[in-house]
Amino acid sequence: MPPAADRRPTTRTHHGDTFTDEYEWLRAKEDPEVVSYLEAENSWTMSRLEHLAPLRQSIFDEIKARTQETDLSLPSRDGGWWYYSRTEEGKQYPIHARYEVGDPDDWTPRVLEPGEPVPGEQVLLDQNVEADGHDFFSLGTFDVSDDGGLLLYAVDTSGDERYTLRIRDLSTGTDLDDEVPGTAPGAFFAPDGIHVFYQTVDEAWRPHRLWRHRIGTSRDDDVMVFDEPDERYWMGAGVSRSKKYLVIELASKVTSECWILEADDPTGEFRCVRPRSEGVEYSVEHAVLPETFLPADGSAGGRDVLLILHNENAENFELTVADVPGPEGTAGWGDVAVPHDPDVRLEGISASQRYLVLYYRRGAIGRSGILRLDTPDGVVRRPGASPDRRAAPTLPASEIKPQLMESARPPEVGPVGTSWRFEEMTFGQELESVGAGVGVWEQPNLLVGYTSFVTPSAVYDYDVATGERTLLKQTPVLGGFDPNEYAQRREWAVAEDGTRVPISLVWRKDRVTLGDDGVPVTPAPVLLYGYGAYEMSLDPYFSIPRLSLLERGVVFAIAHVRGGGEMGRHWYDGGKLGHKRNTFTDFVACARHLAAVGWTTPERTVADGGSAGGLLVGAALNLAPDAFGGVLAGVPFVDALTSMLDPSLPLTVTEWDEWGDPLHDAEVYAYMKSYSPYENIPDDASHYPQVLATTSFNDTRVMYVEPAKWIARLRAAGAPALLKIEMQAGHGGVSGRYATWEQIAFEHAWILQVLGLADVSTPPV
């Protein structure tokens, strides 16, 4: 018999409503009885799925056989070194290394051959050595000083995301006495190589303080340089790509604020770029604009500016150019470079010495636009274009979007002297992810990353002047993989309120036969994935483990529901706070659409989501249990109301801008209670499909107790529900690539069982 958690009723009362919770006692993490119960859940799950062991092994072997186990990343140059990481067959973790630059004018990374010794290699950090003796290992900081002599790194060996910071002397390979426990990830060297900046977290796991440490001194002498008391705000900090400024970024879910300091004065005082204003978000990027971008008023060339993306009166953000603030700060955004467009969501800007890259989203696809700073007017030309700015041809209209790529004429006194036009990077596929990467400040070329659902990730060297792309490295897929054997496409479901919701599909052509109407002749098994929160977009990506499903005839689908960012800021706003139910009804609409048009049937559909996506599939399960044959929920946020009522828990206060504040607002309380998966399980859930929840004992983002309580209540109501808990892991699951493959194989075998394919131990030839 499955373990049955004792029913120990506790009550909570808010806004006149009393809820009886029979399983809240499972929150006592240190209680041996709780640990014993969780271990019993694991034993029960493994006993129920013991028959899938051969299938799990087959899937693990397939992933392993398709993966180039001994491999190297593409080197990236910084200063006088080429940096890279490599993996070795049989080892769980990567090895970080470097070799010296030969020709100082050589900026094209050399593709290194897997398994061959790298001449002059210096190993900086072998994660396998650092992880020895630990069941879990995560690297949270990796930064090399500008002179190349020191390595700053931080490790977590429990999964609770509290990192111990260390400094290694790379000339000797030994660590200095400097060590700081309990830090957040993302520490960094100041450019002087003498000072280190790191962050610490409060009791709610919120990075809130920035500290300055002088190398070789006691931690007791460290200086707290910034403290953010508002519990809604998280802190981030770093060095600008130009290495001219140190930057602090403070952000809630709806408001942000940036502070800067000259990097050559690391002991100085940070100053605010623009004081926070509720509901206004902005980010800054330092750039140096050449003379041709400045007004014809005698201003000197090479002017320091801040590129600012903000959303004040611009829902989808606009890009402006402003002077770097002095001690008094700045009062305005500067001049508009790329204006607001209701159809284009501006997401980021990167600058180097020679070009800018703008990241934006249009038509549910992320895109990159490139602007050169070393041409007379910033216009990107085709090969052989005239250098005469008056006669310089621009890109044809078919390759640019004028509303985005050409700005309004700026004020006469503004720093932007011409309209800006960007070249949009594309590889011509309907569903693709293309990102132009800006390396270090001096780098003259661009690296362009490209992938799709059917194309393994590739990196190209891109010559902006000529438009020439050279493939440098593509993720190898062993075993005769042919992308032409797979297909991808976009479908559109119609939500309850008439909104069209995009769905991405990928399948193997010879496993799923399509009719003349473009849908399978026989309904196919479908794995439907969703997330729908925090404005995160689920862009096309290639996955080697996914091939084990596609080879067995499974169609993989992503429901791009509201709450994500695929269709712009309004798409996010339409699935948060008082509109959160749209996320769940959109997902159900996608599942019903795929069944209605013939792609699948409800019993051959498995819903999949993790973290906030676990909330999504848990809520969808209660709304429409008949729409799915199974639900896989990873580290699921299924007891959302309980968590949002307790401000002492990690993340709660910072999350109120995303979900609402049920502690102080009765309407929010009632709304969240109407959809929170745990509270809405019916007394009789025997008609529910199969459910598998996975979680981690040391997860600080979504505590193990949420899925543990959810599964206990589902099972008590008669639902066929299983729980698998990793006792040494964090929010991202287990660490190490082989352990990760085992976890994936476990989940995929369960999916195949639900879809009626578990008897297929190996994919058909």
Automatic annotation (TrEMBL):
SUPFAM superfamilies: alpha/beta-Hydrolases (SSF53474), Peptidase/esterase 'gauge' domain (SSF50993)
Keyword Hydrolase: yes
Protein name per Swiss-Prot or TrEMBL: S9 family peptidase
Peptidase S9 prolyl oligopeptidase catalytic domain mapped to chain residues: 542-756
Highest taxon listed in the record's lineage: Bacteria
Keywords: Hydrolase, Protease, Serine protease
The family this protein is said to belong to: Belongs to the peptidase S9A family.
Pfam families: Peptidase_S9, Peptidase_S9_N
Originating organism: Myceligenerans pegani
Domain Peptidase S9A N-terminal: 3-474
Native organism taxonomy: Bacteria, Bacillati, Actinomycetota, Actinomycetes, Micrococcales
Protease found in the keyword field: yes
Xref: InterPro entries: AB_hydrolase_fold (IPR029058), Pept_S9A_N (IPR023302), Peptidase_S9_cat (IPR001375), Peptidase_S9A (IPR002470), Serine_Peptidase_S9A (IPR051543)
